[in-house]
């Protein structure tokens, strides 16, 4: 499922216009993004949790040329699946 399919599903199930459903989905995603940017953690019980992991700088290799390069430190969002979702997927 992609974002437009999610918006369409919400619009159909809750009898909303596509535009209104899109605003709701965007509000949820923007709120989640802002929480992660501010260093917070998102936990949706039964679904999973999102956290930001910090990765240190390291020496890497350009796969095309083989040249050794410095990879800068970075932060990446990480999703950990919840127990209930994992069980539902495995038992379906």
From TrEMBL:
<keyword id="KW-0238">DNA-binding</keyword>
<dbReference type="GO" id="GO:0005829">
    <property type="term" value="C:cytosol"/>
</dbReference>
<comment type="similarity">
    <text>Belongs to the bacterial histone-like protein family.</text>
</comment>
<dbReference type="InterPro" id="IPR010992">
    <property type="entry name" value="IHF-like_DNA-bd_dom_sf"/>
</dbReference>
<protein>
    <submittedName>
        <fullName>Integration host factor subunit beta</fullName>
    </submittedName>
</protein>
<dbReference type="InterPro" id="IPR000119">
    <property type="entry name" value="Hist_DNA-bd"/>
</dbReference>
<dbReference type="GO" id="GO:0003677">
    <property type="term" value="F:DNA binding"/>
</dbReference>
<dbReference type="Pfam" id="PF00216">
    <property type="entry name" value="Bac_DNA_binding"/>
</dbReference>
<dbReference type="GO" id="GO:0030527">
    <property type="term" value="F:structural constituent of chromatin"/>
</dbReference>
